[in-house]
Model the fold of this input.
Amino acid sequence: MSKLPSLGTTIFSVMSKLANEHHAINLSQGFPNFPVNEKLRTIYRETIDLDVHQYAPMPGNAKLLFQISQLIERHYHRTINPNSELLVTAGATQGIFTIIQALVNYADEVVVLDPCYDCYDPAITLAGGKPVHVLLNDEYLPDWDKIEDAISDKTQLLIINNPHNPSGRIWQENDFLALESIMDKNPNLILLSDEVYEFITFEQKHISINTRKKLSNRSIIVSSFGKTFHITGWKMGYLVAPEKYMIEIKKVHQFLVFSVNSVAQETLAKYLEIVDVNQLGSFYQEKRDLFRSLMSQSRFNLLPSEGTYFQLASYLAISNEKDVQFTLKLVKEYGVATIPVSVFNQAEKDMKHIRFCFAKTDETLIQAAERLRKI
Done:
């Protein structure tokens, strides 16, 4: 008997498979197709020759934990204890799963904001919890009245994602004031803040829970080296949490993966000493601007993209088909793979929006836009 009876193959795997079968340009799954930074590659090659091939400490390489704490200090002006408030994980998805297994008990409710990344629900279900979905508004921003109404005395966890996947929207100061008010009214509520795209922002800067003193002592923050340094295949992430939560999270982590790739940890510890994460936003902003410029003569209506490496577009001027059917036509007939936004919603709300990933080489974006302008 299946524990996840309604779960099938993810849309990301489906679209990437179709892209390969139809020799399509893959703007669907969120991974870059350009080389990793040469300095990082050099450090990795040098690290392979060192004696770092056995189990790393369960919470993480001590040098890496220290460098993460320094990154948070520099970027967010928050001082954390690397020994008790940090955990290196095998990617952000494993981190999210571990948090939920550690903190959600049978019949607990977890409020999830749709559209959202598809890893939240299965983890809640496997923990015996109940996902409670609340739709973001039509601009993909929080409706705080609806969120507050969804919270009950059974609610253990509220999951937020900012910068937001799939929309690329970023929350404003008033959103955090509203969130702080809700947390004040619900003193037992814990916040899980998915911030894996934290360093990929454009005109507006991301406001991290790391900077919110009213929230940080009741929050677990999820970060991703894979997204930050476009090394998604390394599956490297980390969690920031108060010690009272981290104690419970580590109990699950040690029996889930125990420790994370030792060579990757040693490499990242050295790379963090020299890299400037503040340059990442401008790097991806150039790609966003190029893609938007290339698409300006298309029939697609591009929505705001304030962060992440995703661009939503409305295709209502082209077709009234359901978004899943429209994306299937795109990959099969026009040779471009994208993601339908309805799959990010429990209720499958279909606003005729699709998601492009612009974390690609300029050549790839140019070729894709040429095909899309013909529609």
About this structure: The two ends are 45 Å apart (CA to CA). The chain has two domains: 11-36+278-372, 38-271. The mean pLDDT is 95.
